[in-house]
Structure formats: C-alpha cells, structure tokens
Amino acid sequence: MTVLVTGGAGFLGRELVRRLVAAGERVVSFDRITTGAGVPEVRGDITDRALLERVLREHAVSEVVHGAAIVGVTASVAGLADAVRVNIDGSVALFEAVLAVGGVRRLVDLSSEETYGHFTADPITEDDPARPISPYGITKYAVERLGEYYAGLPYVAARLCWVYGPGFPRRRLPHPWLEDAADGRPSILGQGGDQRIDFTYVDDVVDGVLLLLHADDLAHRAYNLATGEATGLRELAAEITKLCPDWHVDLGGGPLEMAPGVTAARKGALDITRARALGYAPRVSLADGLARTLAALETAGSTP
Ligand SMILES: NC(=O)c1ccc[n+]([C@@H]2O[C@H](COP(=O)([O-])OP(=O)(O)OC[C@H]3O[C@@H](n4cnc5c(N)ncnc54)[C@H](O)[C@@H]3O)[C@@H](O)[C@H]2O)c1
C-alpha cells in the first residue's frame, strides 16, 4: 500500500509527502526534479505513461495525489502549449496508466478555483457553473472532465484556492508583500484593491487532501478545499501591517492584474460545506498563516 504523489517535489507535493510519511504511510514521489525527501523519488515527465505504469506496478500504488502541473495563470499564458501538454496530456497519461495497472482505490487531483472563471456566486459551490477563462483554468477543468470521463477511474478533484505558506515558489499574493515587509521595503500595486480571494494556508489544504485520499466513500467528484471566507486585498494589507507596522502598500482599486494585460477573474469565497461533511475544518486563520509565513521568511533571511 503506497501513495504516489505526482509533483511531489513542488510546494504542495513536498508538504503532502512530509505529512504522509509522518502518518506512517509508504510514499513514492514522481516529479521532473528531486528534492532528497527521504522517500523513493522517481524523476520523469508526467506524460511518460510507460514510466508511470512501471512506478504504479513496482511500488504497488494504492492511492494517488496528482499535483504535477504547469501551475498558475501567468505560467499558462506564457507557455500555453506546455500547459496543455503537461496538464492535460500528463493527466491522461496518468489516468490511463492507473486504469491499465489497476489496484488504485483513489486518485485525488489537485484542481483549482480557476475552473470557475468569474465567480457567479459568493461563496461559490461545486455545482455552480465552471466557465474557466484563463488557459490554466481551462486545462484544469479539462482534466476534471476527463477524470470523470474514464469509467472506473477512482477520481476526485480537490478545488484549491490561492494556497500560501513557507516555501511558496511563485510571485503571487500574499508572498510579494510579505517578502517586501520582511526586507523593510514598501510595496506598490497599481490595481487590485477590489479583488477578493479565499487565501488558504498550506496545512489546511494538506488536511483536506488527506481526508479525500482516505475517505471510504465519496458522494461527489469535486470538493472545494479553501477556508470558506474571502479577504479583500485592502484587508490583506491591513493584516500584514499589523505584523509589520512599518510596511505599507500603495494599492490602486479595480481587479487584480496577474501579469501585464492579464486580469484575474472575479473571485470570492469557496463554499466548503461538502468538505466539512467529511470532517474538513480549516484551522489556520489568515492572521496566523501570514505570521507563520513571515516568520519563515525572516528565518531564511537571517541564515548566513
Ligand atoms: N498553490 C496553489 O495555490 C494551488 C491552487 C490551486 C491548485 N493548485 C494545484 O496544486 C498542484 C501543485 O501546485 P504547487 O503550488 O505545489 O505548484 P509547484 O509548481 O510547486 O508544483 C508542481 C510540481 O509539478 C512538477 N512538474 C511540472 N511539470 C512536470 C512534468 N512535465 N513532469 C513531472 N513533473 C512536473 C514541478 O517540477 C513541480 O514540482 C498543481 O496541480 C496546481 O495546479 C495549486
């Protein structure tokens, strides 16, 4: 009985591997890079179905968390063909390998609130319309539909939203502001003050994914895993100022620009009623999560 974590060297993958090992599970990580995580790490491309089949067989994999992807709106806009190849072709390779080898009782796919496109409800439920507008969201939603398409695939999508915490690898809020605050610099954001986001601390997401992985029966094919509350960027700035009174941000109004010319979808809170019924209960408040992330940045900054 082994859990395969694809994208196991990534931000969420590393944390999932760590928590699974701490819980006494056997784990194998599959990624294009290795981290020396102390578990078997297979280096390969997620589109390599033959290699995936070998890993599933050799490690007698019983559960899969699928996180290998080109992640984020900005990356998907910069490299659309690569996002399609890795996110869609890679997921198809994994799904077909799982079906060919057998023995997998659950496959949790790390999906995204980007599948909703502009939120049509706040909080948004899993049954509200999914009309993704970014290339990233389109690939993630295509994967969800393909996961449901394959008969017999034990697929479930975890829809995550703006996960943050120590070690986050991209420049997405709250991280750039926390980095500026830790370095004693002010921040500038020309527009975005009207954006609202369900920021979710990494530990809570991992809790939710582990619940989905281990639940006996699941009534649904998609579960929102967030906090159920959205924070406006002005409120976010106020929380960071409480931690770092000398920091401030020049923040314009309107929607957020993810990259020059790429406006974020209108967002809000994710309804987590479905996940709560499985026992999911986010534990880390925004204030605590920001404080923990800032402390990690300050510790890293003080390392010689
Ligand atoms: N972090 C978030 O806020 C968030 C929100 C919603 C969904 N997700 C999803 O969660 C998953 C993990 O995200 P993350 O934040 O840890 O990102 P990440 O970039 O840290 O992790 C992705 C991992 O996938 C690996 N990878 C990329 N291309 C690959 C390929 N061709 N073959 C094998 N491995 C490859 C990368 O090396 C990386 O380690 C992704 O599927 C992402 O879409 C994340």
Short précis:
With 304 residues, the chain is of the alpha/beta class. The protein has helices at 11-22, 49-58, 73-78, 80-101, 135-149, 175-183, 202-214, 233-243, 273-276, 286-302, and strands spanning 2-6, 26-31, 41-43, 61-66, 106-112, 155-160, 163-164, 187-189, 196-197, 200-201, 222-225, 231-232, 249-251, 257-259, 262-263. It has a domain at 2-164 and 199-229 and 268-280: 3-Layer(aba) Sandwich (Rossmann fold).
What does this structure look like?
It is built from 10 helices and 15 strands. The model has no long low-confidence stretch (mean pLDDT 96). With 304 residues, it is an alpha/beta fold. α1 packs across α7 and α4 (80-101) runs parallel beside α5. The longest helix is centred in the N-terminal third of the chain and has 22 residues, at 80-101. It is globular, with a radius of gyration of 19 Å. Helices cover 39% and strands 18% of the residues. It starts with a strand and ends with a helix. The protein has a domain at 2-164 and 199-229 and 268-280: NAD(P)-binding Rossmann-like Domain (Rossmann fold, 3-Layer(aba) Sandwich). Nicotinamide-adenine-dinucleotide (NAD) is lined by residues 7, 9-13, 31-33, 45-46, 67-71, 86, 90, 110, 112, 160, 162-163, 169. Residues 3-226 form the NAD-dependent epimerase/dehydratase domain. This is UDP-glucose 4-epimerase.
